[in-house]
Each structure stands twice: as structure tokens, then as C-alpha cells.
Design goal:
heterodimer, A: mainly alpha, 2 domains, 12 helices, flat, B: four-stranded antiparallel β-sheet, 35% helix, disordered N terminus
Amino acid sequence: MHDSLFDRFREGESFLHRLAPTVKVVITVLFILSDALLPDGHWLGFGISWLTILLLNLAAQLGWSYTLKRSFIAFPFALAAITAIFALPGETLAVWDFGPWHLIATDAGLLRFLSIVVRSWLSVQVAILLVTTTQFPDLIHALEHLRLPRMLVTVIAFLYRYIFVLSDEVLRLLRARQARSAIPPHQRGGGSILWRARIAGNMVGQLFLRSYERSDRIYNAMLARGYQGHLRTLNRHGIHTRDWLLMTFAIFLLILLQLFAHLG
Amino acid sequence: MPITHEKRNTPLPENLAEDQPVIAINNLDFAYPDGHAALYEISLDIKKGEKVALVGPNGAGKSTLMLHLNGILKGAGELRVGGFPLNKQNLPVIRALVGLVFQNPDDQLFSPTVFEDVAFGPLHMGFSEDEVIARVEEALAQVDMSGFEKRLSHHLSTGQKKRIAIATVLSMHPQVLVLDEPSAGLDPRARRGLIQLLNTLPITMLVSTHDLRMASELFPRMVIMDEGRIVADGLTSTLLRDESLLEKHGLEKP
């Protein structure tokens, strides 16, 4: 019931699926960096980036609009940049008064805001492409190969394993509440907002306690199998010549894009 | 990008003397930190090759006792595993000797993939990569789950999870298998499969269970616990015939 909720991976045989996970992570991060470095309002540069993503979508045999359709989920977060409209000096576009606030929208501000939205939208798409073509355990290993702090990698790995268990736990709690949320005939049910809030609070507390106790049991299970303070892993990913070539090519393209955007 | 992974070799005792008990507990007492006493004067010897059922009502102390066998809990009294007294120095060796499988497979299986979970024990014992891979294959074959290496633990059924959970300790080549309620929550077919599996494993076993039918089928010896004490220890067939004993300790004749 929960697989589709979190697992974004899609089986496939494309060259993107076969590429070494470490290389994919590096290219993704560099791509996002390159996005962030494109100057405000460089629509041609953004366009080229997006075109690349579309082509990669096709190359991964996902259909051209796969990441596009799934990228809107991040849009609300980009709205956090809305203050940029009023924060930059430039030609005044409009003035609003909200009580004590005197807001001046400028053209430079608007341009920056739109650029930020496009940048985050492109970044989200390339990240979606990464998790769609890479099994999550492989991603975790890639992070390990890239020498990310071990503790961080471990936390991500546990999060991935137990988010399913936790979401099941939440589902069970919600069902138990629903099953007892009865209303007698000819009466109004539901209780006051305050009472409902308290119930919800109790459920959150329950969830925390259950997770806490579970973490204790898991730690015991780790101890029982010889855990002595740091995790060891077997990594059997090799990086082949093909991966090196592709990574070099991708970095070359990104540098070219940056040169074009800043000098051209 | 070559990544070298730490390797370490823990010296392991190869084979125990035949007559020596694998587990020897003498006068073990334990109270939880909050003062709640859980075990009183537990004395129990388990010989090599014995298959023992540990039964008793909920809260009798079965799980608490099992956690002692692996040194996760430490009570007052004497506990030897494979001849080694339980102390800080022997702890890694004892954990390799005792394969402890927890009741809830979601607690036991904490890695993203089946392979990583089964490899966890051998890796932490310091074996080489080839050895670890060989042990994982062997353990999965023993529980009849070959080919599941790349599967994600959260996509498995409960019966499959239980089998993998057993494989996670079989890969450590333990001397004793300690299972906490292995048949709980299984449907009849998965339960039957599990009983067959336990029957084929040629290894010393201590299994806590409420399933007295399984106990009579699999375990010649039975230990009954109640309120933190061992109240009976003998042949399963004899104990199961003593209806007043069973009733007194909240058990039902199968």
C-alpha cells in the first residue's frame, strides 16, 4: 500500500540506469550547481538545461514529460523566494500597502524571483531523474563512496528503511481513530476543535514513543550481530571507463554552458 | 575510485568440546533499571545439539532471558556461552556464538536490501568480501530464499521476513540459534514452512513460543517459565501431559 508513496525508482535497461550511481550523483550535483550559477534571466541557458533534461528523460525511456509532471510538487517551496521581488533595487513596477508594510515590486526583483523559480524547478527535475533511474540502496552506497560523513549516510539509510514502517504505523493509528469516530443517530459528533487537537497531539506522542522503543529494539538487534560502533559495508560498484568518459563529457558540457552564459 | 573497507579478524573458537554445555546459566538474577525484577535464580544448561522450547505466559521473562544470552542485558549470576564467561572482553565472541533472532522481523531487518542485512553479521566479524558473499549465499540457501539478495526488506511478506531474519544470524555460523516467538503472526502455510525449516537446521536451538503444538513437534525438551522463574524443565512429551502444571502457568494443552 505504501510502495508507490515513496519508491520513485522505475526499472529500466537504459544507459542511465546502468551508469555507476556515484557518477550519477556527481553529475546531478554539478548540474544543480551549474543551474544555480546561471545569471538571472538567462532564459537561453535555462532552456538549454531543460532541453538536456528532456533528452535524458527520453534516453531513460520514461517519456519526455516524466520529470516535468512530477516536478510541480516542489513549486510551493520556490514561493519562499517571493520576497526577492521587493528586495532588489530597480525600476518600480507596482506599489502595495499592507498595513505597516510599504512594498515596492521592481523589475530586477521580479526577474530574480522568476529565475529562482526556474532554477529550483530544473534542479528538482534532475533530482527526480536521479532517483527514478537509481535504486535507493545504490544511492546510499554512492554517497558512501563520495566520502560523505558516515553518520549522515547511516541516518539516511535508516530513514529509508523505516519510513515505510513508520508510515504503516501512522496509517494504523489513523484507522484506529476512524474506526471509533462514530456519531450517534440524531446527534452532532466531532467534538470541539480543542479536543480534536488534543487527540491529534496524543497520536503524535504515541508515534514518537513507538519509534523510540523501536529504535531501542533495532539497536539491540544490531548489537546481537556484532555491531561495535561503526557500520561496515560491502561495496561492489565499479566505475568503468564508460562512466569516466560520460562524467568527463557531462562536466565539459556544463563548463561550456557556463562559459556561454557568462561570456557570450 | 578504489575504496578499501576495514578488515579485522576476530579469533573464533572453532569447535567446542562435545560434552561441554553450549549455554550454562547458574543462578541468574536480573532487575530492570526501574526496579522491576524480571528474572530470579535462573539455572539452565543446554548441551550441544539440543533443541529446547521455552514456554510460559507473556511477561514470564522469556525475552529477558534471551537478551542475556547475547550479553545485551547483564544480570547478576554466572553465564557461560561455549565455555566463555560473559564479560566485556568475550562479548564479541559470544555474540558470534549465539544467533539471536528477535520477534519482530522489522526490528531484525534494518538494512535497505536483503543482501546487506544477511551480510551485516559476517561483515562485523571482519571476514573478507569473498567470505561474506559466500556466507550470504549459503545462509539464504539454508532458509530457502536464494535469489532474494537484491530485494528490499520492506517489500517482503511476513513469512519471508522471518526466514531472512533467521538467515541474518545463520550467516554468522552460530553455535546456538535463539529465536523469540518465530511462529507468531504467521499464517498456517508459512508456519508449516517455518517448522520444516527449523526441523532441517542441524544446530542447537532455544526457541521461545506460545505454540505448544510446534513445541511438541520440534523440541524434545521444554522449559516452562513463569514470573521470572523456571518452574519446570523436562521432556516435552511428559510436561505436556501434566494438565494441572500447564493450567497453573497459563498454558493450554495442544
